[in-house]
Amino acid sequence: MAAIVLETSTATPVWAAYKSGEGMFDEMLDLANSERNGCQPTAKALFSMPPDWFAEISGRAQQMFRRMGVTFNVYGGADGVERIFPFDPIPRVIDADTWATLEAGLIQRVRALNMFVGDVYGEGNILADGIVPRDLVLGCPQFRRAAVGIKPPLGNFITVAGIDLVRGADGRFYVLEDNARTPSGVSYVIENRLVMTRLMPDLMRSCRVRSVERYPADLLQCLIEQAPGAKSNPTIALLTPGPYNSAFFEHVFLSQQMGIELVEGQDLVCADHKLYMKTVHGLRQVDVLYRRIDDDFADPLVFRSDSVLGVAGLTSVLRAGNATIANGLGTGIADDKAIYAFTPAMIRYYLSEEPILPIVETYLLGDRDVREEVLANLGRYVIKPTGASGGYGVVIGPKASEQELAKVRELIIADPSAFIAQPVIQLSMHPTIIANGSKSGTQIGTQTGAQIVPRHIDFRPFVLLGAKPRVLAGGLTRVALREGSLIVNSSQGGGSKDTWVLEA
Amino acid sequence: MLRRIAGHLYWAARNLERAEWRARLVDVNYHLLIETPPRGSEPWSPLLAIFGERETFASRYATADEDSVLNFFVLDLENPNSIRNCIINARNNMLSLRHYISSELWIELNTLYLDARGWTSGLFSSPGVFAFFSELRDNFYQLSGILQTTIPRDLAYDFIQIGMMLERAEDVARMLDVKYHFLLPKLEDVGGPVDLLQWAAVLRSASGLEAYRKRHGNSIELKKVVGILLFDASFPRSARFSLDQLAVSLKRIAVERAESGAESQTSSQSQTQSSSQSCTTSPAHFTALSQLDASLKNDRSLQVLKAGLHQFLLEIQDGCAAIGDEVFARYLRSD
Questions:
Q1: What does the pLDDT read at residue A215?
Q2: What is the arrangement of strands in the sheet containing A274-279, beginning at the earlier edge strand?
Q3: HSE (side-chain half, CA atoms, 13 Å) at B308
Q4: How buried is residue A325: exposed, middle or buried, by Cβ count under 10 Å (0-12/13-18/19+)?
Q5: What's the average model confidence in pLDDT over B308-326?
Q6: Exposed, middle or buried, A468 (CB in 10 Å: 0-12/13-18/19+)?
Q7: What is the tens place of the pLDDT at every residue in A119-132?
Q8: How far apart are CA A436 and CA A444, in angstroms?
Q9: Which of A81, A121, A448, A465 is nearest to A315 (CA)?
Q10: Which of A70, A481, B65, B319, by CA, is between 20 and 30 Å from A455?
Q11: SS3 (DSSP) at A270
Q12: Cβ-Cβ contacts under 8 Å, B107 against chain A
């Protein structure tokens, strides 16, 4: 499986220099050499493309994204904060069998996470039975006392989940982390696909790629199904923090695709335990709010009082059962990096099933023996702060400098339960186009020419829970554009690829 | 539709219309100066006066020469009303409401925005002022074509129309005012033969020269110029025409509000109702609109010229501002 060299007779020169990493899983080459999965046609077609083609399609893709305004905002920048999410046109292919297993595993996982949240804010059985330590949950920064006793219709706290998966050196998919609050990235999945259908229509047709177009309709359906009192024609709105949020493009995109209002906190008002939006003709009641702001900002009466992004009184509206929000308050306990260690146990507890998707071995540093073992070999582990997301604060032992290790050691000793340690997972690699002479490969034009190099990737599929679970047949494949980098987050130099799930 | 969104649509349209007028005026003035050597020492200062920006300009530039004025009107990011800023503002207004407009309109506007962000003064030498402005004009035509052919005739369209038509009526009055002031300083010239070329340029700024000739023939008379730009209901850049369009949109919104009576009933019971929302006695009636409508009813250009065109043009501009205030109070204010 490692370091496969291409047969030079069939590959064009741009591929001849390609060499995947020693001891790592190369998604395209390893799968192209395997007989039974159906990934070969794509690989073969790509191997035979003329060298200039890669630079050309990269350039065209960039231009399309720019014109469409498919951008994300970077925090902390003043002008020119809108950036294009770098896009690599070489698609990542997942065969039908692999997908079937992933899909079953994802549904199983999100169902259990959702039951966990409902249980914690309801009966608390899993805590009483000692399956997940009560202290860990109640002490979790994402635990929201205000959510206790809220009973969403259908019992769903989680409507949208993005589960981050990585493929290890053994070719297996592992769950790296869960996103059960306001996961983002799905708009890029859909826009990437739109661009790909224009870049390589023939290849897509011949490979029989499953469509991702249905996602907004599915999401809308899930939201409708959760309207209070099973209202048949509910008013639904998407709550955004506004144009300066990093995912603002996605908020616009989804509200456009679903045909619902995109509201900001200033557009909403609560009265008589009901939620309204301010329209040109007066107030109009909102039944379901798909919110893309954090709990902390949702209701200044209950959470951060300095927030102007949310709407005062929202919590009491929810408590009265006069509106539904998705995702519900307090779902952060389901994607906490320490509670993650207990997710296999949750699946067994709630569903009496064995977990289909494995998780990465996780060490909670609150335990003294574990902590000492990890601190003694800090250079071998990945250290993650339990409270952060977006890849911020992650220290990868083998790649960290002495100073970085010393600093994280200090932080761990000061507040051990704020960190977890995991063994380093060698993320799988994928052929990726970068500009000649570039290390990060974001600006590719036909003048510069391009080369194809292996880069680490991960995968974020999206799971929806309404009256039934729905999984988007695809997901966001993120690629770490910097050589050797394992951090794929867009805020830190990551790009994306289209993910092709093949028809069975 | 949300009040905030309606406001964004209104302002996006105003900004676009403003940018277009500016582009027209700068272009026409530029070419006029090539054909007729300037009489005064500062041939660009009338243009600054049209927009009421002489002070802003003077505080930042030494002389009103061609380069400075082009820079000020087109590129200057410090000038809140430069063409570039108008385009940036329009695009940023639209950014929050992409779901209300067509993707075609968004992509066109976003492309223009990206171009405008990259403009440099080098463009005036290559491809040159003419090429620059004709491309810009084409861009505006494309935008308005896409707008007319892709936006459903609903609230979104109506708020766009209101912003655009208010700006248009105001801009045509303003343009006429300054041209009148600068071109005809002497009262005895009123109604007499005028500087043909200058008034032809005024008409051309409004794309009205050809329409004028078709209707009135070759001889250009001030009375008829005023007639076509202010009172002519058939000419798409006249104040009268703009006002008619405005009235259509306002009426449609008022009808919709009346039909959505059930909803305002619910909302007026709530305490958070603002006073402007609850006063719904006569939804179709806009005082400022009726007043302006009456003054533009019949072609009174000769009468107006005799009584003082400047005064009349000020009335139009004030009328537009008052309509804007009423629209704001009734539909856009969100407190």
A1: 97
A2: A268-271, A274-279, A282-285
A3: 5
A4: buried
A5: 92
A6: exposed
A7: 999 999 999 999 99
A8: 8
A9: A121
A10: A70
A11: strand
A12: 67-69
Residue A82 confidence (pLDDT) above 80: no
List C-alpha distances in Å: B104 to A17, A199, A458, B33, B64: 42, 19, 33, 37, 39
Question: CB-based contacts of A235: which residues, under 8 Å, 6+ apart?
Answer: A261, A284, A285, A286, A287, A288
Nearest CA to A346 among A116, A67, A16?
A116
Place of tokens 């009148």: B180
User: Cα-atom radius of gyration of chain A, to the nearest Å?
Assistant: 23
Q: Which residues of B touch A243 (CB under 8 A)?
A: 92, 95-96
CB contacts < 8 A (A, B):
89
H or E segment to which residue A458 belongs: strand A450-460
pLDDT recorded at residue A464: 98
Q: Which of A401, A336, A502, A391 is nearest to A166 (CA)?
A: A391
The two three-digit tokens of residue A215, written as one number: 């996602």
Please say whether the beta carbons of B233 and B224 come within 8 A. Answer: no
Residue B242 CB contacts under 8 Å (≥ 6 apart), including other chains = B165, B166, B168, B169, B172
HEC secondary structure over A372-421: HHHHHCHHHEEEEECCCCCCCCCEEHHHCCHHHHHHHHHHHHHCHHHEEE
Per-residue confidence (pLDDT) for residue B269, from 0 to 100? 41
B99:A259 CB<8 A: yes
Whether the CB-CB separation of A146 and A330 falls below 8 Å is answered with: yes
Alpha helices in B184-238 (DSSP H): 196-205, 209-216, 222-226
Mutate to test the interface with A, among B88, B92, B98, B257 (most CBs of A within 10 A): B98
Inter-residue contact A292 to A252 (CB < 8 Å): no
**Per residue in B302-311, pLDDT tens?**
888 888 888 8
CB contact B257 to A (< 8 Å): yes
Do B3 and B157 form a contact (C-beta atoms < 8 A)?
no
Cβ within 8 Å, pair B277-A282: yes
d(C-alpha A381, C-alpha A397), whole Å: 5
**A interface toward B at CB cutoff 8 Å?**
66-69, 242-243, 248, 252-253, 255-256, 259, 261-264, 266-267, 269, 271-272, 276-285
Candidates B6, B98, B270; nearest CB to A252: B98
Could you read off the pLDDT of B65-75 as tens digits, one per residue? 888 999 999 99
Please give the residue range of the domain that contains residue B118.
3-332
Quick count: other Cβ atoms within 10 Å of Cβ B211?
A: 18
**Residues comprising chain B, all counted:** 335
Please provide residue A271's backbone torsions phi and psi, each rounded to the nearest 5 degrees.
Answer: -150, 140
Q: Tokens at residue B127, please? A: 């491809």
Residues pairing with A84 in the sheet: A71
The total number of residues written for chain A in this structure: 504
pTM of the model: 0.84
Mean pLDDT of B274-302: 70
Overall number of domains in chain B: 1
Please state which of the ranges A35-44, A201-210, A231-240, B105-114 shows the lowest mean pLDDT.
A35-44
Q: How far away is chain A from the Cα of B286, in angstroms, using its nearest Cα? A: 16
Compute the distance between CA of residue A166 and CA of residue A477 in angstroms, rounded to an integer: 10
User: d(Cα B175, Cα B25) in Å, to the nearest integer?
Assistant: 8
Query: Around Cβ B188, how many Cβ atoms within 10 Å?
Result: 7
As a whole number of angstroms, the distance between CA A111 and CA A356 comes to 13
Q: Which residue of A has its CA nearest to B265?
A: A282
Question: In whole angstroms, what is the distance from residue A98 CA to residue A89 CA?
Answer: 22
* B263-273: pLDDT as tens digits: 444 444 443 44
pLDDT at residue A372 in the model: 92
Exposed e or buried b per residue across A127-136, where buried means at least 16 C-beta atoms within 10 angstroms of its C-beta: beeebbeeeb
CB-nearest to A256 from B98, B273, B331 is B98
